[in-house]
Amino acid sequence: MVRLTKIYTKTGDKGDTGLGDGSRVAKYDLRVEAYGTVDEANAVIGLARLHVDEELDGILARIQNDLFDVGADLCTPFEESPKYPPLRLADSKTLELEQEIDRFNADIPSLRSFILPAGNPAATHLHHARTVTRRAERIIVQLKQDQDISQSVLEYMNRLSDLLFVLARHANGKGKDDVLWVPGE
């Protein structure tokens, strides 16, 4: 487990930061941007948890933990024979999200229009989390163009945004209180 005794280290005062393998990169490095945006999505999910029922809170709590695994995976570049095996996101985590999507989507009517990221506070925060998750996914895809990235991380983030969309609709009275887009108005 992680043990933090001193919060500030001053090691990043010159604009670089350490990765999970001990190497150092600029704080604007795309890898840092990727796991930083995952962290931002995690924080927005924390806000959503303040507005959801106990069942959704439990799901979101598990997802927040998973997102730390995603961040750990992203902050450690792939290496042939690492001295210490890094934490990698388990493939089964994406399947868990798919099962939740199917379960919650079963009671929600099909869409006949796009919906606006609105409704009650729970739904609105879940939509916000969805958009930050999508941004993190786009950054991860960009990073994958040049560096090895776990496919399970990419799939997880894609499914997570889908689940957050479904949970937002669920929070909006199982879709009854969705705010529909009216083109041209």
UniProtKB/TrEMBL annotation:
Lineage top rank: taxon: Bacteria
Record field: catalytic activity: 2 cob(II)alamin + reduced [electron-transfer flavoprotein] + 2 ATP = 2 adenosylcob(III)alamin + 2 triphosphate + oxidized [electron-transfer flavoprotein] + 3 H(+); 2 cob(II)yrinate a,c diamide + reduced [electron-transfer flavoprotein] + 2 ATP = 2 adenosylcob(III)yrinate a,c-diamide + 2 triphosphate + oxidized [electron-transfer flavoprotein] + 3 H(+)
Involved pathway(s): Cofactor biosynthesis; adenosylcobalamin biosynthesis; adenosylcobalamin from cob(II)yrinate a,c-diamide: step 2/7
UniProt record similarity statement: Belongs to the Cob(I)alamin adenosyltransferase family.
Keywords (A to Z) from UniProt: ATP-binding, Cobalamin biosynthesis, Nucleotide-binding, Transferase
Gene source species: Marinobacter iranensis
Signal peptide coordinates: none
Gene3D superfamilies: Cobalamin adenosyltransferase-like (1.20.1200.10)
PANTHER family attached to this UniProt entry: CORRINOID ADENOSYLTRANSFERASE, CORRINOID ADENOSYLTRANSFERASE MMAB
EC number: 2.5.1.17
Domain Cobalamin adenosyltransferase-like: 7-170
Alphabetical list of NCBIfam families matching this protein: PduO_Nterm
One of the record's GO molecular function terms: corrinoid adenosyltransferase activity
Protein name: Corrinoid adenosyltransferase
Keyword Nucleotide-binding: yes
